[in-house]
Design a protein that fits this description.
The protein is built from four helices and no strands. The two termini are 24 Å apart. It is mostly helical.
């Protein structure tokens, strides 16, 4: 299981590798080393995210938001099933990525 500490350590490795690129200590392989370390960091983050939320599961707030409650009420007022209303609440739940540390958020390909 990947830990936040391991991810932070690998992030430091990536940062250190980047600091060497183009410096007098660069023997010509620093950029390639940096890219390899960055690839490893991305793999670690992907694995951490996968372990944190198994397939078929979703993170939701402990207390439902007003938007989630409104979604439930609307669905129920239309006579839909409990399962349908539950799904409406899940769909209305805020996505946890908005509260994750920047390092753990999904990255664009330019990262």
């Amino acid at each position: 299981m990947i830990t936040i500490e391991q991810i932070m350590e690998q992030h430091q490795v990536v940062s250190s590798a980047w600091s060497i690129v183009g410096s007098r200590f660069d023997d010509g392989s620093a950029l390639e080393t940096h890219d390899q370390e960055k690839t490893e960091l991305r793999a670690m983050i992907k694995q951490y995210r996968k372990e944190a939320v198994p397939d078929g599961w979703q993170l939701v707030p402990i207390n439902p938001t007003s938007y989630m409650i409104d979604s439930w009420r609307i669905d129920q007022s239309q006579g839909r099933s409990l399962e349908s209303s539950y799904q409406a609440m899940l769909s209305a739940a805020p996505k946890p990525d908005s509260n994750l540390p920047e390092l753990l958020k999904p990255q664009s390909p330019e990262y």
